From TrEMBL:
GO molecular-function terms, A-Z: serine-type endopeptidase activity
Protein name as it appears in the record: Peptidase S1 domain-containing protein
Limits of the Peptidase S1 domain: 11-89
Disulfide bond in keyword set: yes
UniProt source species: Colobus angolensis palliatus (Peters' Angolan colobus)
Similarity comment text for this entry: Belongs to the peptidase S1 family. CLIP subfamily.
One GO biological process term: proteolysis
Entry keywords, A to Z: Disulfide bond
Pfam families: Trypsin
């Protein structure tokens, strides 16, 4: 699982336990979700928020494998030279 350390930084560095919820596309329809505890978080070694957010990426190792479904799919890892425009808040579609 890929996440942004800006959102999980306090959990990672404070050693709090947390889980990943996958498969929901709506807060009203939760019967497709799977919740898996996180075993370990790997924050990018050069993650920084000193003057600007840099290397905002973390990999989360789950406690057990997850089966893919129509609502749970792997992501595509971009090429090394991939750039995201400034002020991008999220990737993907809301699916609403």
């Amino acid at each position: 699982v890929v996440g942004a350390p800006g959102g999980v930084k306090s959990c990672v560095f404070d050693r709090l336990r947390y889980s990943v919820k996958m498969g929901d596309w709506s807060v009203c329809n939760e019967n497709t979700s799977v919740v898996v505890p996180v075993r370990r978080a790997f924050v990018h070694p050069k993650f920084s928020t000193v003057t600007t957010v840099r290397n905002d990426l973390a990999l989360l190792q789950l406690h057990h494998p997850v089966n893919f479904t129509s609502n749970i799919q792997p992501i595509c890892i971009p090429q090394e030279n991939f750039q995201v425009e400034a002020r991008t808040r999220f990737w993907g579609s809301l699916g609403l």
